[in-house]
Design goal:
Elements (H helix, E strand, L loop, with lengths): L6 H32 L5 H24 L19 H13 L3 H11 L9 H16 L3 E22 L5 E4 L22 E2 L4 E9 L5 H9 L8 E5 L5 H10 L4 E5 L2 H4 L22 E2 L35 E4 L1 H10 L26 E22 L4 E11 L11 H19 L6 E8 L8
Parallel strand pairs: 3-7, 4-5, 5-6, 6-8, 10-11
Antiparallel strand pairs: 1-2, 1-9, 4-9, 9-11
Helix pairs in contact: 3-10, 4-10
């Protein structure tokens, strides 16, 4: 983080201005109340006398509290104005926070949250919300949840085949291969590869290779005389957001989009092996993800998605939903399609690391038969929160958050973060029992449906 000279003074000046503004507002309100009750404005002498009386009451009350401490032993009293913490106390709390907990507790949280695939809006993801809430409460924190009714989509069916000029047909399974030694890869609850918010649709057309699907890639296609209108675009992941690939293809008149993960971008050119022998995406691996161009529930842009909310139509352009269907495919499935293309050879920088002599652009001559059916439904999502009230500035917030939903198990994205959040919550709970209180209010958030577009 860059440290700009004078930044501290600017912050101090802003805080002084805020304090002065609050003081002026309080003073004007007090003057109005005094005048409305007495018929005259308060004088400086009147104010001085009243302040002296208030301070006397506070001092008497404090003396009584100290001399009758057993009387207040069962009452939780907080005096933010007079709370003072020494640097030694703060250092002690800091050291305690660092020493508390262990990697074992983080690992336990991660295991519990990722035992099943938990896509947003599914019963499995509600289980993870309940787990997070239970953990917050177990650590002595005030916890609650909020539910919203939002538009989500799930795959019903999908098919893809390649019809070659010689009459032969290649059918693609559109599924990831199970990994030997990894029982989780065989789970029946893993959702098939799909793009969130892709509309249903069917297309039979020639394919055109469009590199990363950027605006400049489509401009180059037009420069060399390739028209994608009525075609199925095949592009590789990388460089830009997948939703922009679909949007750019739709803008140019394409009828559907296939997006694959090239080994050049996701497997170190295929030179270092694949999972489970290395960290790289295997040939049958597929990247799921959303193609939504907005943020939040598409049907309630800018207002809460509660049961009584006004909702836009799915066909309203204001929803920013994709207009043509798309589906993610593996490098393994992309290979035969790209091998079938003729036409101009793509520029060298368009070549990936698939095992083909050259990347041709097309179109065709083979045709691709593509079909996808989506379940568009308004369903419930659940956000979980824990709140630790600040003792001095409770109306100022420090927010710690992480989403919880995942396209499959979500061990790295996102729940390495969720397990860390719960570990922090546990340590805060122990600090609270030791007498610590935060200066400002801390809010810990566990969000649902982030994968669909920060819904």
């Amino acid at each position: 983080m860059t440290n700009h000279a004078g930044g501290g003074k600017a912050v101090e000046g802003r805080e002084e201005t805020e304090i002065r503004t609050r003081h002026d507002a309080w003073w004007m309100a007090w003057r109005w109340r005094f005048q409305s009750r007495t018929g005259s404005l308060p004088t400086s002498a009147t104010v001085t006398i009243r302040v002296a009386i208030l301070l006397s009451i506070c001092l008497i009350g404090s003396s009584f509290a100290w001399s009758h401490s057993d009387f207040f032993s069962h009452v939780s009293l907080h005096w933010p104005l007079f709370t003072i913490r020494s640097s030694a106390q703060m250092s002690e709390f800091h050291d305690l926070f660092v020493q508390l907990g262990s990697n074992a507790s983080i690992a336990h949280h991660l295991y519990q949250i990722t035992r099943e695939p938990h896509v947003a809006g599914t019963p499995e993801n509600f289980k993870t919300a309940d787990y997070v809430l239970s953990a917050f409460r177990k650590y002595g924190l005030r916890a609650h949840h909020r539910e919203y009714q939002v538009l989500l989509t799930y795959p019903i069916s999908g098919s893809l085949s390649l019809n070659l000029p010689d009459g032969s047909v290649t059918h693609f399974a559109l599924k990831e291969a199970a990994v030997e030694g990894d029982p989780y890869s065989r789970s029946a609850k893993i959702i098939p590869p799909f793009h969130g918010y892709s509309p249903s649709g069917t297309a039979v057309a020639a394919a055109v290779y469009a590199n990363y699907g950027r605006v400049e890639d489509f401009d180059l296609l037009k420069t060399i005389g390739i028209d994608v209108r009525g075609a199925i675009v095949i592009a590789r992941y990388g460089k830009i957001y997948r939703g922009d690939i679909v949007l750019n293809a739709a803008t140019e008149g394409a009828v559907a989009v296939l997006i694959y993960s090239d080994p050049m971008d996701y497997a170190a050119n295929g030179t270092q092996g694949y999972y489970p022998d290395s960290q790289w995406l295997p040939p049958s691996g597929v990247q799921r993800g959303t193609t939504y161009e907005g943020q939040g529930d598409p049907l309630t842009p800018g207002w809460p998605s509660n049961p009584y909310a006004e909702r836009l139509s799915v066909n309203d352009t204001a929803t920013l939903l994709p207009r043509i269907p798309s589906i993610p495919i593996s490098a393994e499935d992309a290979l035969p399609i790209l091998m079938s293309l003729t036409g101009p050879v793509a520029p060298e920088i368009w070549h990936g690391a698939l095992n083909i002599s050259a990347y041709h652009i097309g179109p065709g001559p083979a045709t691709v038969n593509f079909s996808y059916s989506a379940n568009e439904t308004i369903t419930t999502i659940r956000n979980a929160f824990a709140v630790i009230r600040g003792f001095q500035e409770p109306d100022r917030y420090v927010i710690l958050g992480n989403h919880r939903d995942a396209w499959t198990f979500g061990a790295v994205d996102p729940n390495s973060g969720t397990s860390a959040l719960l570990e922090i919550a546990q340590r805060f709970g122990k600090l609270l029992k030791s007498g610590w209180k935060p200066r400002r209010t801390i809010i810990m958030c566990s969000w649902d449906a982030e994968e669909y577009g920060l819904v």
